[in-house]
Amino acid sequence: MKKIAVASGKGGTGKTTVSVNLYHFINKYLTQEVQLVDCDVEEPNDLLFFGNAKEVSRETINQMVPRIDNEKCTYCRKCAEWCEFNAIVVIPPVQFAEVNPSLCHSCGACLVACEYDAMKEYPEPIGEVTFYKTEEGLGLAEGRLKIGSAMQTMLIKELKKRVPDNDGIVLFDAPPGTSCPVVETVSDADYILLVTEPTPFGLHDLTLMVEMLKEIKQPFGVIVNKAGLGNNDVYDYLKKENIEIIGEIPFDKEYASKYAAGNLLQDISHETEQRYKEIIEKIKTKI
Amino acid sequence: MKTVITSTGNGVNSQFDKRFGRAAWFCVLDEETGKTEFYENPNKDAQGGAGTKTVEKMVELGVSKVISGDFGPKAKDLLDKFNIQMVIIQDDDVTVEDVIRKIK
Amino acid sequence: MPRRRRLRRMVSPPGFKGYRPYGANSDDSGYVELLYEEYEALKLADYNLMNHLEASKLMGVSRATFARIYESARRKIAQALVESKEIKTVYGNAHLDKDWYVCNDCYVRFTIPRPHRHRHHCPMCKSEKIELVNQK
Fold this sequence. Notes:
The complex is a heterotrimer.
Chain A: E1 2-7, H1 15-29, E2 34-38, E3 54-68, H2 78-82, E4 88-91, E5 96-99, H3 109-113, E6 119-133, E7 139-145, H4 152-161, E8 169-173, H5 180-186, E9 191-196, H6 200-215, E10 220-227, H7 233-240, E11 245-250, H8 253-260, H9 270-286
Chain B: E1 2-7, E2 25-30, E3 36-40, H1 50-61, E4 65-68, H2 73-81, E5 85-88, H3 96-103
Chain C: E1 8-9, E2 18-19, E3 31-35, H1 36-47, H2 52-59, H3 63-82, E4 86-90, E5 94-95, E6 100-103, E7 109-111, E8 130-132
Parallel strand pairs in C: 1-5, 3-4
Antiparallel strand pairs in C: 2-4, 6-7, 6-8
Helix pairs in contact in C: 1-2, 1-3, 2-3
């Protein structure tokens, strides 16, 4: 099983567009053993482009959050001192001790810290992982974070764990940005496609992404989406940094309207299909 | 009765700080004697939970009133639980001394 | 970072959730959102017939800000009438926390902890001219 992550740094450059199209064309030209995984758990939207997708399974994902047993607690404050996230409030003079689930990262440090067996864990839902069958390929898996939860990274980890092994390709559609959820998505990928746009914002966030990937030593190439817009700075940067361009997708207003209407995979133009075919040829050499 | 006034510095001439959990300093005023003490806020740059940590400190100091520019939802709940009075001042340009003078 | 929006004081929130035009096919003509502070401004100026300066003081904003809120309120209502839109009232930037009081002398807002509910004076200036911000 080969893992390809689609990431971008900047939001709105076309991660979802590229992921959904790649899923479609990999199925057509490379292998039908292809699985799409929407890791943008804060707002997963890949599903929107698969009108006939059928839900296969749905699972609630929990994080374990500790609760303090006030009978056993001696208010020694050790748990609160160990907690890196300020999630535990202990006020000895008034015999008050409480864990704030919205700040807890379930690291378990407080369980180790407590010498009086006053910490017990209980499950707290953070979101859902859902598998869908699509008309082509192996299907779509998606994580959906519960509103108010801050456990994106944990949910992505659980989502990835649940993706069954196959003999083909898994595509991870990453969240925007360069923070923990993105690192979690791309860290075990065999190859990373960075989608950018030739605008100052696109370039700025691309450089952040490139720095991050160099730091974690992951192989990557760039797809320039909306080519023809903006300026040449992105190309100059890629040349200077010796980064390979895997493909270019020209800006097309009609294509954008189709995306907005949710019809990304209907009547794809010959031009677009050619571009993705070339991209897949290049990816083949990378994995 | 102890009152805390959030402050940007460690003296009564410092500007009033409109943040609660992320205030730079806390001025603890004894309303009977008029004496003030200043504590630096160790949580002002915390990633999260600065408000609740600060409430923890307030309860430990035995404070009964806090004067600040606003309070976050978690801090509000906790301060309420421990019966600490919250006072919101929205004046921009006041020093801690101005606030103390107003109380008297 | 933009400057924080000062909260506007509300004496009392509107006693309705909205208005709907009748005799007009209003289903698809949409709605306007009238903020609580806009309702308050309109009430003070056109119902209580206060001048803008008095009204602005009561709401705890500058006269210019009051004028802006008031202008926005009138435009929204005019738009609703002309275009047969519904009027919905929403919170906006008005302060309506349940147990918050405001001092009418020095304009600070404050809570009164449960054990001291009998103490009815401002914690800053000791004025007794205080009122619950939201009496509903």
